[in-house]
Amino acid sequence: MRDPRYDILFEPMQIGPVTAKNRFYQVPHCNGGGYRDPSAAAAMRGIKAEGGWGVIFTEQCEMHHTSEITPFIELRLWEDQDIPALRRMSEKMKTHGALAGIQLAYSGINGPNLYTKEVPLAPSALPIRTFTNDPVQARALSKSEIRDLRRWFVNAAKRSKLAGFDLICLYGAHGFGIFQHFLSRATNQRTDEYGGSLENRSRFVNEVIADMRDAVGDTMGITLRVSLDETIGELGFSNNEVREFIEMNRNLPDLWDLAQGTWEDCSGTTRFKEEAAQEQLVTGIRELSDRPVVGVGRFTSPDVMVRMIKSGTLDFIGCARPSIADPFLPKKVEEGRIEDIRECIGCNICVTGDMTMSISRCTQNPTFMEEWRKGWHPEKMNAKGSSDNVLIVGSGPAGLEAAWALSRRGYDVALAEARTELGGRVSRESRLPGLSAWGRVRDYRTYQLSQRSNVETYLDSRLTADDILEFGFQNIAIATGATWRRDGVARQHVVPMKIDAAAKIYTPDDLMDGNVPGGNIVIFDDDHYYMGGVLAELLVQKGAKVTLITPSAYVSDWTNNTLEQATIHRKLDALGVDIVLNRGVAEIAADHVVSDCVYTGKTQTHAADAVVIVAAREANDQLFHDLLARQEEWADAGIRSVKVFGDAETAGPIAWATYAGHRYARELDGEPIGDALPFRREITELAPELAPEIAPELVAE
Ligand code: FMN
């Protein structure tokens, strides 16, 4: 039963000519699949519909071929032929009464047009701004081209309608969409009636919305997504100017969609941003307009959501990441199952799918983007197979996820943990600076396990192969994690590096165990994700003087993909960490390290009382191998399967571990698939009947 406190979240709300069934608004978010994986993307949105969202948007959709953001994979609406794939998505969105929204993007100075080879067009001639600094410039739109662009928006709006959408969001936020480029004095340096005063800079968006209203406004709601603050100082579209703009254009869109400045700011991670972090920027804007307002802020708590509505700050609760971590968030609030909400941990692994043009993942929700590819549902497991029980060794993210998923399938599960707390690496890492939200991976699952009668948990239980062969479990799941290497083996050194026996060497595990060195500390980061930077923070907190040496051109390089890299650099710099880039560590002596330039090999000496090596991790797979060595005893012991997964198979980010645990649980007792692919692809979906003709000998095999 729904708690009446949350009733307000379920009030129907008008957006122009259409009505949302509640205030849960899934703002646009990409997924790494886009136009390449339309079935996967459509099924993912369909799951959100089932989960109770009142409004569901696509990711940004390139609305004309003269502005596209290759290599990033979003949606495309370049011609009528794009309509069927998009219609499939809108149909899925609408299955449970949600409004289906499409975000139209014309990327201006963010579209390098690497695929179409068209000349990029923008309000003013400026170099294209992309993550990769493509050596391409945009040309200023002529007035007749502005008229063309208005017509292209109308065409896109008509196609959106044909594709079945109820809402159109015009993208002018995050520095990305052309509307922002017109609104900001930094990117609009025109001297005609489209540049100069705020009124002039607002002209283009006014014209486009008027045109679109004429074309589709009787049946479709038109929303405008603008940045709350461009955060580039005086010249930018500041929070004050945004307010002025909204007041001046009170009733311009049917809804104001407000999102903070850059994408990095807007999708800030828990390491740097709290829930509702944009509240101050958005407060008071609602009073400047008669139209409803949606805002974002990694909202996972229904109490915070209610506060945002009751305080008159927002009309709709916008969610991207929380809707990925738990597509059933609204439904769980509605059913009074607050404690079942799988909270986003704010790690931005979802963003990395987009940034690496792969397919997105979610640490908390391993079924994300596997709804169609693998038929995985976030709330439903497949039926139990022929065996009955599983012993899981290791309660890190892989083991916990496997335990929860297996128990839902109906297996009896025993979960053995060598340490005195559950959670493995997520528990240990959650005590490091900025990473407390990692604990949600454990907390969600341990709570769920505590509600089930078919799971037994054993702490302080370090098992041997002898123990396991005695116990009589049918399936043995080894999820014993990994250990940070002490010998420097990673990318620069593929064999153990030169380390003086008198040198004091620490690994991330040592620091997580509370052995934190003081004095002059060198961190050698050849891991390149968050750990090196986080340990630098920890060491500074404990009073050490830190030099961080990394062979990469960026500190914590891979966090470029989680949008955190610049913030990490700023933070470490502010803490006084000496950041040494493009250098490896050739040798570690008793009181110094010798670094070497990755380009020239030139060496340099750095004083060091101790060195923290953040290198590769080694799988803790001894138990697995001990069991494998005694395979002939399995049958007598009643063992049907022994499997290793997660970091114990090979180390990766936490999301890889929850995925591996989930996959193990889904596949237990499944039919072997031989050489077949373990997931569906668009191409195989399109051409199954052609396979025998193409490669008869392979099919016959
Ligand atoms: N915002 C857009 O306007 N268009 C996009 O295509 C888009 N893609 C995103 C992809 C991912 C994976 C994420 C996490 C965010 C994206 N955003 C995009 C920003 C979100 O809409 C949202 O403003 C931001 O993530 C803050 O909301 P949240 O805290 O609920 O995640």
TrEMBL record:
Stretches assigned to the FAD/NAD(P)-binding domain: 389-626
Cofactor annotation: FMN; [4Fe-4S] cluster
Segments forming domain NADH:flavin oxidoreductase/NADH oxidase N-terminal: 9-338
This protein's UniProt keywords: Flavoprotein, FMN, Iron, Iron-sulfur, Metal-binding, Oxidoreductase
Pfam family, one: Pyr_redox_2
CDD domains the record matches: TMADH_HD_FMN
UniProt cross-references to PANTHER family, sorted A to Z: 2,4-DIENOYL-COA REDUCTASE (PTHR42917), 2,4-DIENOYL-COA REDUCTASE [(2E)-ENOYL-COA-PRODUCING] (PTHR42917:SF2)
Name of this chain's protein: FAD-dependent oxidoreductase
Organism annotation: Paracoccus aurantius
